[in-house]
Queue: 3 jobs
Job 1
Amino acid sequence: MSLDEIKIGGLGASRRRVEDNRFIRGKGNYVDDIVLPGMLHMEILRSPVAHARIKSIDTSAAWDMPGVRLVLTGEMMAARNLAWMPTLSYDTAAVLATDKVRFQGQEVCAVIADDPYIAKDACAKIVVDYEILPPIVNPVQAAAEDAIQIRDDKAGQVGNKVFDWEIGDKARTDKAFEDADLVSKVEMHYPRTHPSPIECCGSIADFDRATGKLTFYVTSQAPHIVRAAVALVAELPEQQIRVVSPDIGGGFGNKVPVYPGYVVSILASILTEKPVKWIEDKTGNLISTGFGRDVYLKGEMALRKDGKILGVRMNTISDHGAFFADAQPSKFKIGLMHSAFACYDIPTAHMFATGYYTNKAPGGVAYRCSFRVTEAMFFQERMVHAAADDLGMDQAEFRRVNFVKDDDFPHRTAFGFLTDSGQYEKCLNVGMEAIGYKDFAKEQEEARKRGKLLGIGISTMTEPLGAGNSREYDILGIKMFDSAELRVHMTGKAILRTGAKTQGQGHETTWAQIVAHELGIPAEDIVVEEGDTDTAPFGMGTYASRSTPVAGAAVSMAARKVRAKARKIAAHLLEVSEEDIEWELGRFYVRSNSDRGVTIQECAMAAYSNMPDGMEPGLENTAYYDPPNLTWPFAAYFCKVEIDPETGVWDVLQFVAVDDCGVRINPMIVEGQIMGGLTEAYAMANMQYQTYDEEGNCIGANYMDFLLPTAWETPGFELYEVVTPCPHHPIGAKGVGECATVAGPAAFVNAVVNALSHKGVRNIDMPLMPNRVYEALTTGKDVYGMPPVRSGN
Amino acid sequence: MSSLFEEIATPPADNIPVRRITVNVNGTDRTLDVEPRLLLADLLRQGLDLTGTHKGCDTTNCGACTVLVAGRPVKSCTMLAVQADGREVQTVEGLATPSELHPIQEGFKQEHGLQCGFCTPGMMLSAKALLERNPNPTEDEIRWALSGNLCRCTGYQNIVKAVLWAAEKMRAESN
């Protein structure tokens, strides 16, 4: 009698996506697709230089152009107390520059005109007189004693340091290093990059003077946070602010912060009393919005001869650009960097982290990761690789020796996180089998005899996904829970809304599957809506792989509340007491007579037409979910490469990804997330970086300089699955969206380094461009630091 | 059918010359007065409300704005609208009939060849141009044909599968 869960599109069904129906027809609704009556268009004038004092701004020629409605400067923003805004890390960021420009691409003026072409023309007519100041483009320059102070706007700011931060047990870790048989050391740089969704940022502000209501369409992964920010910064009453995130053309962390263009478009709409659209171009996106990474590491590992890790020291220096604008839980200065080594049983660890201001774009955001976890896991797996080599130990065996064992959960990591589940060794074994690990050493040796360079790289990690719980995780004091609201209509169909916001993850498909699993309502009977703060319950949005762990859990809990009410209705309809009722998917029945039952749809109809005496009508509920812990997925990635010794070009021969993200709601979508993440990992390892020349010019300011892999160079990926359900999530799911971006880069780099280790190479910093690999293979020396800046600078 | 009022893409300022052009878009002749500098992508999006053609990079790299001009894939952010005068343009909106999806559209859905959907229209039109000249492409030929279209979500593997799926269906239909 029970329904077939796969047939109704429940848990485990590779259900085809609902949202595709509009996307494949070109009927998506992205911000730039929205046209409102009388809408004006805004363009931003950006600073061409990295560091300069603004002597004067002449906007008269722009005002004189036909079709120009408004020209805004920092001074005009300041008159309304809007020249500066708070960042997600308790810093301030300029909206439009008043005193100085502090990075190339910083917003200086805005023109609002009848069409975007006129707005662009008018920007070109604005004359800004700059007094050039020396630019600071890396933390070494920033830390110099005689360095010019970038943030002279901040009272009490000394020098260019943003923060010092320390975590772990220093005394105990020092002792571990004294007792070590061997200390393995590495230094490396995780280069600056950009999340670079294909769709840039944009907004439409529509202020209605008559009602006092602001409707704000915006490319935001967290629309409810935007509403709160607008209420606090612009001092508009929160009930009069409706934020709508329509379809989003990729986010990857880039669309979490509030950007100056958003704020300016709001003021422009208030002043012009017209809707104002701002659509950023690609260069604007690449040089001014949240970047990722740009962290230097000195790592040390204390080792015992038999391969046991006794202790870890990490010393990081991060480059935050002109404004400290990381999106991260407020307690942690450098995000969750201290999640490093969570999958290994390590007695003690200590981390010291320092952050600096530079004349570079502000950030950095968590690019497809949870608050700096990508850097943490990359450093971890590069340190592990180096340590195994230094010990002369097999890479897989070294990991096996140090893994937290299956029956050692819950496990408190050396930096204080509590991991709760996993089968690390099993994942390792699946991957080793798939890639043919045991035969590789022989293969590699034979290839070397033929002049070929083969390498294998492993990357294994567990990472904290799904912030919060609210005890430990908040952003600007707002606790990191999430929400879902489920309304079942009288015909048994339903609408579900959550506080998350899909940007390609497929929430419209998967959330309905969770409801189908909990209630037995076919997924196709459930519509999912997100992103409109007037209709959806408050939530913290979609980033840090937190949708399934937090909002997804809220969906389950809301559905369970609905089921609890439906049970009372069922008892009424079946004329038995509630205790005599049993549930099977989609149906309540009488325990003593399973033929006597009512479906969830019959209960829904009764909730509106035949409810028991004294019961509130209707069948709906809302759940706010505060997870007891983060979720801890595990990844074991294996990469096999061949390097061309004549050019340094490397090709991926095989890539095996074993992912344990707990129970998979929609396996097709999970695999899509993993393949996409692996491609971004490959991009990072290979080509996708930004650097700055000595004058502070951003190298990587468009897609001709900032390289993204195409279908042609992207390798194929072989995916494998292990399932260890999350012990605290209602349906046993863990986060997965960013596992591959986080664990992936080290697999590629470890493989290339492995291919060259017989020449004495221990490290090549990303990106592993052919010239850098060639340098390593011809010199036998490590290649460090930022990639060279090309000629002409 | 649009009125002339709707078809004027951008109200020109007094001193800016306009050119009258006729472009056949998805099978229908559209006549418009346009500024000579108007980009084809903006004509389609703003002038004709065909917002399925997306703008990603403005530098002819990302391919989100790919449309077919006389059957060949063109990045419409780098072509002037006046250059399309007298020619046939096909956009994503012209792929499906009212009753039926194009096999490429079906393939992208069946093989999960899209996530955020932003690159998808351009990707599908590049695929269509490929399958029209090569109904039975290898995986490498598909990857090469799509190498002017960037995707940040999918990792391309399922896009390749989607095109193979469509190719098979189109061959079966033509037999």
Job 2
Amino acid sequence: MNANSLFHLVFFVALLLAASWPLGLYMARVYQDQPCGLDRVFGPVERLLYGLCGVDARQEMDWKAYALSMVGLNALGLLAVYALQRLQGALPLNPADLPAVDPFVAFNTAVSFATNTNWQAYGGETTMSHLTQMLALTVQNFLSAATGMAVMAALIRGLARRETDRLGNFWRDVTRSVLYVLLPLSIVLSLALMWQGVPQTLEGSATAAFLEPASYDKPVLDETGRTVLDEAGKPRTEPATQAQQSIALGPVASQVAIKQLGTNGGGYYNVNSAHPFENPTPLTNLLEMLAILLIPAALCHTFGVMVGDRRQGFAVLAAMTILFAGFAFLTLQAESALNPALAGMGVESAPSLEGKELRFGVAGSALWAAVTTAASNGSVNAMHDSFTPLGGMWPMLLMQLGEVVYGGVGSGLYGMLVFAVVAVFVAGLMVGRTPEYLGKKIEPFETKMAALIILIPPFLCLIGTALAAVAGPPEAVSNPGPHGFSQMLYAFSSMGNNNGSAFAGLTASSPFWTIAGAVAMFVSRYWLIIPVLALAGSMAGKKRLQEGPGTLPTHGPIFVGLLMAVVLVVGALTFVPALALGPVAEHLALYQLK
Amino acid sequence: MFTMFAQQLKPAFLMLFWMTFLTGLAYPLAMTSAGKALFPAQASGSLILGQSGHAVPAGPAGSALIGQPFESGQYFWGRPSTTSPHAYNAGASSGSNLGPSNPALAEAVAERAAKLKAAHGDAPIPMELVTASGSGLDPHISPQATAYQVDRVSTARKLSRDSVSALVARHTQGPLWGFWGEPRVNVLELNLALDALADKE
């Protein structure tokens, strides 16, 4: 790894930390109903929305009402996304005349976008009409992110309040998340992206003449449109020339902005942010990476302010940042290695650029891989499938840790706070005292909920992978050997933690993958949110204890170390055997070739 | 519990409806209008219009952000592309997704290297000329990869090496702020400029 790569990392982390502080303080005002500046612009819209929806936003909810509102909004959103995809052929704003989406793929996509995963079983520009991209996908990008932020706000209130069962109003939290945080940031980012070259138009495509017509081998089709095979069983081809390029366009900038800010990650185009129209320059690469981690990092400060002790927020942010920097360093290091399989062909000794875009290079691609998997974003600017074995493993492990290293908007912080509960529990066991966090006693109910939250994603990931290896369609896997196993492990790590990135050679549009994947995404989202809200409800009802000499301070370096250790140990113990079968085996095989 | 849920369905439905209106219609349409007013060229795809001296009957010569395939001696060549059915299909972006240990990757690289060697001799081949880009539409190569091809292009066009090198230098973009991103040359724009240069002389 060269000095420039390392400098990329240091520069990025410094910018992120600097930008997250003011945003964190601002969001604390948003969730505490204090004037935040933008209420002069959006205040009337906010009140109008409550009126139109018949919501009494001042009425606070207990955890069950909060959870039921969340389920209602998400369930209806899921149905709407499914319906829009199935009906798009008959609806307007479909310049490419795309037909209805396949029912399995549509179901998978509906779950995927409602759960903030944005796993793509479809190819954007060849499957979804403009209307579907806007009304179904963009809307869920906002609402699923706002859901995560609302649940996070409820958990923080649960920790901050005492002897109450009220956690806030779900509708109010969702509306304020959209109006005061997600929408303004998206508008600013959309404009910056357009300035740099990201299209934003209702046109379907532009046609350009190739400067030099391209010759290629065209597969021969029979009358039914199927490819004809030759004697060797390979598709028969005939020489053809292509003189024109049809360039797919659409309302791209508005969707890319929110997909990054809301840690959604579902791309407008098939190759996501590797596409020059989604991410045209090194500057957009920087802005989009910052957008991915900005809100999750800033929420740590919001947490500190809302519980009345900013050091608590710093401690959580420190643990996340140290883990992120470590994993990003390892990913950069692994991607800087040469691929011995490409030696001796007369090619310069340089890291492989297969699947990478030249404008980002190795550093810009590897850093993005760490960013997108640390957050539960899942958009990619290079094909992770073609990364070195270890360069693909570190992002995979970042997802498997439970998406708490910054994590998704809201979901990352509520996940990390659950790990904090486990950390004080472990510390309590070591010194033989009743554990407490922020003055709240951690009792059997909280420990059970925390264990449930921490154990569900690994369970989904490992069981899903095993099921795919045994019962999945073998032709779905596109690479031979251990890498094929890595493709399946990556897929369930991604869906079981609501990330959405992929080793994209895997064909995930078959019934097995769409349904098993949808189940994993659904369970890992809602079976986490509901215990988190139950935990919040139970915490809110407790008294706040005075700090005594036996209290473990949760703002110092010892706690930061303990928190990181708990995250790493749970992740490592669970996933090392599976990783040994995939990326580690591939690494050992590849590097003994020499 | 069930009645509690039923009570929440009405606000859930209305909230979804109005949020769809706000974030699914008003926001993207407002951004589309803003794009048209503030950045009309970029918002419609950075199309290259008004190129003279070509047999381009009408319409754009491409997009400044989207690459095109080149394989004849008189043009600079860009990244290999694995979009289907033909290279640089800007209607269906795609990478190869070949794993690092997949024998098909080594085979593809060896094949591309042999073709480049036949045209350029035995100098070490820049990595991006033998590996497919992630999007299949990457418009750029590095300055090293243009230097590798300068002799071939200037010979084929009967231009001096210096005039071609000077043209390349004019089309080279450095990293942002000197360190962020990679130095790069847009292959389509360079080749269009080559054609314009040939017309002038």
Job 3
Amino acid sequence: MPLSRSDLEFRAQLWNTATSRIREFFCARGYVEVVTPVVVKSPGMEPNLSPLAVDVHTEGLQAHSTRMGLITSPEYSMKKLLGGGMQKIFTLAPVFRDREAPGNRWSIEFTMLEWYHQGKDYRELMTETGELIDFVLNVDRELSPIYGGVRRGRGVGGGGESEGVWLRISYVDEFEKTFGFVPHDDDRERLIDACKEFNVAHPAVDEPVHEIIDRLFQVIIWPTIVTRGRFMLCEYPVPCASLSKVSADGRYAERFEAFVGELELCNGFTELTDAAEQRRRFILEGEERRLAKKEVFPIDDELLDRLKSVTSPTYGNALGVDRLVMLLAGANDIDSIHLFPPSTRY
Amino acid sequence: MASPNDIKKGTVINLNGDLWVVTTFQRVSPGKGSSFVRTRIKSLGTGKVVENNFKSAETLTFETVNNRKMQFIYSDADSITCMDGQTFDQVMLSKDMVGDDMKFLKEGLDVTVIMHGDKAISIELPLKIQYTITQTEPATKGDTASGNVLKDATVENGMIIRVPIFVKEGDNVLVNTETGDYVERVAR
């Protein structure tokens, strides 16, 4: 049954509110909005993601077809613009992720907000991210629907004291407190021992180190921090660095994620700007993809070339706009905020 | 062999010979990192409840269960009673096993009772249930501008939900039972 006009207008209004406030926020801070391509030759190397592959055909004398993919994030294009000298940029991009389990927070296609600022590191990014989310959700103790959503009742933190404050929780500190060490790439044995000691399902022999760390974290640590309302989880173990820079002392990766209750909103980094290290990680990720029998797209050489001109530090953040709209709507289900609900389309 | 992605409320998982019924589940697809299913499972033997995560790539063994279409009739201090409309068979189920779904129940509601052998172990609600709004404040001008797009509303069984400000008393609305979200207003 089609949605009623009131419901359609309500949902459209939610998106209008969110995107116009996002644009207002960044324009007021001197960011420039950019448009990046959706169909690209190197849609992403991230081992856990499956880009939607497409064959693109050119007609005419030089007729040929090119294997391409739909972006899983506008990250590579954004970094090329940084390499070209742009200093503060943001984009609202459609992104696509195939082979995901259906769920009430997930759709194959969704909207990603990404923004980058050269010369700043992720600590400043955390502050800015909190300000952005509060601005979009217009946090008001009595009125904001955010409190009717993920966590019912008045304060997100339960008592109301944590409203307006984003707690910062260090991943490596929590890990060290619980397991007695800060994990690195060569700690496979210690991690497997920790799994045994804490009775966490024993990982497969070839499971990558970052996956074992994630298991321990999700089962043992996560339940103790998820109750803290809204928080930013930062200082990730080095094997979980993804595309972030490792701290000067080598203890952690300069990466964070913002959560409201259980809902993950974004991944922000002090970006890795070392092209040689980036190439090394792409090769490792490509190998992981091959082992998992996933399509391996070519390494984006243009990106690696442009990366050399990006200043260090530079921060970047990728935020799921659908989830922000869910918070705005007080919705727990992604279907509730879309004019074309994802669960009815695939 | 089954995939963790097939887990639902009421699924019975065989873990090393012990049977566990899923009481709540949430699929998690992180922005970075591999997807998994976060569950709370209850032992059919000891009644112990534990949290467990299953990576989407794992394989699991599910036990066979039977689904019976029944109607919810009433609840007392610690249990609820459902009835088969054809045979008038009644089954009882502890409120523990119904969990958070208790708040959605209303007399005469069609539910699926999940049976393991002759024991009722869980119920499954329709994904969307229709309720009538019995009480809600009228919208005031400027609500949307101040970001106040939702308001509280009470429905006929006493449950309080969040609805858009255009919803009025007497309206029929659909509620998603997995999330508790208002879905849409139903034409009268």
